[in-house]
Structures are given as C-alpha cells and as structure tokens.
C-alpha cells in the first residue's frame, strides 16, 4: 500500500478527531500510568490524524498502532508516551542547551513531532525513502524543525554525535553498540529489544563516567529494525 497524505483534508470527520476525542485518549493514557503533564500536553497538541492515511484518520485517537504503508506502523500512543516520558527523565545540568535527541525509525514522523513539540532538538533517521519523504512534508506543513536523513539507522548519526537521548522505534535483536557509543555521558537511550512477539522496552543510562545502567520497562510490540536502505 502506498501511503498518501491529505494534510488539509476536509473529509476528515470533525467528530472523530475533535478535542473531546483527543481528551479521551489523554485520560486513557493517564489511567495507564502516564503522568508527565508535558508529555500529555504534547500528545493533546500534535494532530495524530495527520500522520496516518485519511482512511484511518477516524481511528487516530484510539490507543493503538496503525498501518502507515510498506508494512510499517505508527506506534501506539501509550508506547510513544512511555518512551517520551523516559527520555524526559534525562537529568540536564542547569543552564544546559536544548536536549538533542536522535530517533531511529522516522516512520510517519509522529514520535519525532512529539519530541519537537516538547522543545527538544530532534534528529531522525529512516531507511524507507518514501516514508521519509512523506514525514518531511508533514514536518514542513506543521512547522516542525526536525533534521532527518535517509540511511540505515543502525549506524546512528556519527557526524552529529553525541546525543543526550536516543530513541529507537523498531525492535533490534540486541542493543546496537554503535548507538550506545553515540550517547552522551548522562544520557538516556530507549529501545525495544527482542524477536517479534517477545520484545521488551529497555532503558539504558550512561553516567558521567561512561558506566551503563540497564532497566526493563515494559513488554512491547514493534516492527523489526532492518538492515540497509530502500527507496
Ligand atoms: N517512530 C515511528 C514508528 C515507525 S515504525 C512513528 O512515530 O511513526 C518503525 C520505523 O523504523 C519504520 O518506518 C521502519 O522503516 C524504520 N526502520 C526499521 N529499520 C530501520 C533502520 N535500520 N534504520 C532506520 N529506520 C529503520
């Protein structure tokens, strides 16, 4: 299926994407343990229905992953919220410049937009060229300044490293060493790890001395982190 965007679609049912429907999603996230108000506000503000095909817009505020073409999915809002909340726990020294975040797996662009809406400086990498082109259009239309590149994200973005936070939105069989290496001291990395069906969301923290601490956050379901690039 080829994903097409309709950013200014008048055909989207107003009722299905209304503020009330969005508020209901926020309440559901809250009930499921998301309590960082900054994250909840970002999810309330970013129009998720503009990150999926028009035919799916009416389902955009359900707490569920949705197809975005090329066998890929936009992540479930709870997972986006949990990963974002985890990254925001990164301790920043007073007066430090804006936190720089690297995302691997741009997909629809929704997670990157949430991070940008929180005022973070976002860098995102996607291996499927067509998905990246569509995501870039959304960033432009919605006014998000997000740097992106078409590449195999398993190599990270070495020229721009280190990053204060790294978020991987596709599941790797094991943590990717190149990404851990690009994490700044004091930084946080979140990544789903494991084979399909049995993945765990992992949070990795690097302390100022470079020592690594790893924690398991939740069972999750993600598409796989794949090698190489496609147009
Ligand atoms: N963060 C996305 C989730 C998309 S699903 C969103 O908010 O919509 C995961 C994405 O990771 C897919 O688009 C897939 O193509 C991409 N991906 C998988 N392996 C990758 C790799 N090695 N490098 C970059 N992107 C990758």
From TrEMBL:
The keyword Transferase applies. Pfam families: PCMT (PF01135). It is found in: Cytoplasm. It catalyses: [protein]-L-isoaspartate + S-adenosyl-L-methionine = [protein]-L-isoaspartate alpha-methyl ester + S-adenosyl-L-homocysteine. InterPro entries: PCMT, SAM-dependent_MTases_sf. The active site is at 75. The keyword Cytoplasm applies. GO terms for molecular function: protein-L-isoaspartate (D-aspartate) O-methyltransferase activity. GO terms for biological process: methylation. Keywords: Cytoplasm, Methyltransferase, S-adenosyl-L-methionine, Transferase. Its EC number is 2.1.1.77. Belongs to the methyltransferase superfamily. L-isoaspartyl/D-aspartyl protein methyltransferase family. Catalyzes the methyl esterification of L-isoaspartyl residues in peptides and proteins that result from spontaneous decomposition of normal L-aspartyl and L-asparaginyl residues. It plays a role in the repair and/or degradation of damaged proteins. HAMAP family: PIMT. This is Protein-L-isoaspartate O-methyltransferase. It comes from Noviluteimonas lactosilytica.
């Amino acid at each position: 299926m080829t994903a097409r965007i309709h950013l200014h679609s008048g055909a989207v049912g107003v009722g299905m994407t209304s503020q009330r429907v969005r508020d209901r999603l926020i309440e559901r996230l809250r009930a499921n343990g998301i309590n960082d108000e900054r994250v909840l506000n970002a999810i309330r503000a970013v129009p998720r229905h503009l990150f999926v095909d028009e035919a799916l817009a009416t389902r955009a505020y359900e707490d569920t992953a949705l197809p975005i073409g090329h066998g890929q999915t936009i992540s479930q809002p709870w997972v986006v919220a949990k990963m974002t909340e985890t990254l925001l726990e990164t301790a920043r020294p007073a007066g430090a410049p804006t936190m720089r975040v690297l995302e691997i797996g741009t997909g629809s662009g929704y997670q990157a937009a949430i991070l940008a809406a929180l005022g973070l400086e976002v860098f995102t990498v996607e291996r499927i060229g067509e998905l990246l082109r569509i995501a870039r259009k959304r960033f432009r239309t919605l006014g998000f300044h997000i740097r992106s590149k078409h590449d195999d994200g398993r190599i990270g973005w070495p020229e721009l490293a280190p990053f204060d936070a790294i978020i991987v939105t596709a599941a790797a069989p094991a943590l990717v060493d190149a990404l851990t290496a690009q994490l700044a001291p004091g930084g946080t990395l979140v990544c789903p790890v494991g084979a399909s069906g049995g993945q765990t969301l992992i949070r990795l923290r690097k302390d100022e001395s470079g020592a690594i601490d790893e924690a398991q956050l939740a069972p999750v379901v993600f598409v796989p982190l794949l090698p190489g690039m496609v147009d």
